[in-house]
């Protein structure tokens, strides 16, 4: 007798070989669960390699809406003998493991259910072409899941039909493979998983999208016309998505395009082109990851000092150096905050999910134009490349781009004397004009050398200092116009709180619930931008301790909170995580409890940790 | 060094061009280069060419990197916007600027250090992308601004002031540009204004990537007797492969040419290039025969000048990637934003 099933709360994981075509089958499962109305998240854990190495795909299914990554696998589809050992170990007691039993094997665990399906053999019986034999193996295990976990067959069939609507000939064989898997289980296997999927109502007005697609769409909606880039994981798909949508929505009747996309020779050229285009009045952007930022550094300083709008997407990955190119991290915070030599300080937007990649992408263009400065959108591999369930994207048709202080020919006629770097309004933001605007007025010289307020070269230390202070004032003036921190006072009485930013938010919010269960109610602030708004200090003031959770070794955001917000060092407790995996709620709970145990005021209230997890 | 503006006084008899501008209107702030620096002669030639061409100065964007040569964009076309970027990266800035507004005239000025060393990669890719610009390399075989180190265009036979030789062969920017697909390639000598001015005009008329490698001696660090980039050496070894006369569209061609010795190229804007051959063996419209001839000049230590190559297809980056004819910076926001209904459809495709 099997125990009662647990509905719509589980982790389904696929261990496959990269390059074997499993990715689209795995996405099919995630989408099918989503279409059944259950919130899901899908994490692709892949090697920096094209073919032959182990790769994983984890789907967290949670009707309660807990879609951060979770440790412990309920149903494992183990299709890669190379990783059998590791994959078996991850299955929770009572869980289920599916494998290709064409070659039988003993997995050495009595406490889990093993389902062997002779997948390769069945495929060999039905197809002769080797590529087809390989590809349809993936559909076979999806079919098996229909029986084993209650994946909705009609939903999957529909998705397949949609996927191949341009090649209808492929629908039938894919359906056939799906049914072969389902029927094999139906006829030969008694066991079913303890966890089951069933239709729910949790995805109304939701979509499933990656952050890179959302950010690319944001650039499109913001009116960016020039995209210049150099391929690097995990940022590549951002520009590719921009390009895909631009070639559709920006096509003129004569076939020309209202967009220019250039794959540059390197990141130096990519950012140089973006700066040149924006100097000339087009909205432009580049997307990269850590190594690219390092290369772009000199140019970022030029844009900062010559006050040229610039939007950079940094989809962060594991550093330093080439680091872990296919794992996630938040470790470019300090590099970007102060990118380039000399005194600089840059605006960073910190999206927490793909939805914010869209809105912050649009905002970034307005902010760059308004403040005439580089703006970093600090995404990461987890947000950028993984599929998240988010609210449907929204667009207000009355929204117009804010191009900032730009003088056209008529406005130039009005001004007595145009001086490119003069602080006319007292907010530190000077006026600019695009080259070619007016026959007599407005021409100026853009340079990275020190300049006076009309752009002329100077070695006068006083003028140099004034200029640098004005730029600082200009950026300071932006703080309250940036996305505000998301503050959740969960208890008026609580004197402790979690501070985080970016992709870790789902895990943190679930972790806060686990901490409630452990008797510790914490407040929560998610930072959404740098430099920090006054609300950040106000939040710090009402707490004794802030646990700063971030995915880097050196607690880089904590450094910024110390240095730029002036928060007491003893108040800021570092909670770093650097394994390159999306954060889990149990990590949040355990790390915070561990840290609490070191604090005199909380030590006694907590029992020592005797965890079996 | 400061920012010295020239006096605004205008002599009543100064000749004006069709735009009502005087030569003075095409000048810039006073040069701070060493007296006798070749770069100042290039500046003078640029002023003359732009004045003669009646260029609306505000429609010209002056792009440069870092170096004595790159500084010169401040010394001409005061009414133009200038962008003195970072060392060796002017090509990417110019490419981006051109993407944003295809209607301006892009004039890049760089040095041999800026172009052939730190910026070699960007230079090659700008050539290959056929960015519509005139790129002038003021080539003195040395790093002027950092005080006389060898540059990558310094010939092996050319010793520095202290008698040291470079063990490495020099990079020939013209040969390289021809191979990489530049449409217009010329070499000139800063000391020969009569040759340089028409070349500049042709380069500005040309649609696509135009390079003029101007040997422009550095009087302070590379003008000694053992230098192959000194005034004396260049004067003695200058071999014009052809003479260029540029005739704007509206003028009739009146000059007489010996039959068989001239090639005519009509540029996209109607201007006529008359190329009269001085070297019978040299055909600047044929890459295959031209390159070996250039190689031969080089081996002999001679400097081939004039139009070295011209591709009359005149293709530019925008043709290659199919951007709209309207400058991208002028496309109205409404035409760029797909709007909420398109977003609804995109949402639906993600369910
Ligand atoms: C990244 C960087 N490295 C080094 C320098 C120093 N630097 C300034 S100009 C220059 C060489 C310029 O040589 P060239 O382009 O031939 O110009 P010239 O002065 O000879 O006209 C160098 C190395 C710099 N400005 N930036
Ligand atoms: S150092 Fe040489 S290149 Fe620089 S200004 Fe003097 S002569 Fe010209
Ligand atoms: Mg030089």
Can you tell me about this structure?
The complex is a heterodimer of chains A (613) and B (351). By secondary structure, chain A is of the alpha/beta class. Chain A folds into 4 domains: 6-196, Pyruvate-ferredoxin oxidoreductase, PFOR, domain III (Pyruvate-ferredoxin Oxidoreductase, domain 3, 3-Layer(aba) Sandwich), CATH 3.40.920.10; 209-391, Thiamin diphosphate (ThDP)-binding fold, Pyr/PP domains (Rossmann fold, 3-Layer(aba) Sandwich); 409-480, no CATH class; 486-612, Rossmann fold, CATH 3.40.50.920. Chain A is 38% helix and 19% strand. Chain A has 20 helices and 23 strands. In chain A, helix 1 (22-35) crosses helix 5 and helix 3 (119-126) crosses helix 4. The radius of gyration of chain A is 27 Å and the shape is globular. Chain B is of the alpha/beta class and 351 residues long. Chain B has one domain: Rossmann fold. In chain B, 30% of the residues lie in helices and 19% in strands. Chain B is built from 12 helices and 13 strands. In chain B, the strands form 3 sheets. An 8-stranded mixed beta sheet of chain B has the order 2-1-3-4-8-7-13-9, with helices on both faces. Chain B has a 3-stranded antiparallel beta sheet with strand order 10-12-11. In chain B, strand 1, helix 2 (68-71) and strand 2 (81-84) form a beta-alpha-beta unit. In chain B, helix 1 (38-53) crosses helix 7 and helix 3 packs parallel to helix 5. In chain B, 53% of the residues are buried. The mean pLDDT of chain B is 92. Chains A and B meet through strand 9, helix 7, strand 11, helix 9 and helix 10 of A and strand 2, helix 3, helix 5, helix 11 and helix 12 of B. Magnesium ion (MG) binds next to helix 4 and strand 5 of chain B.
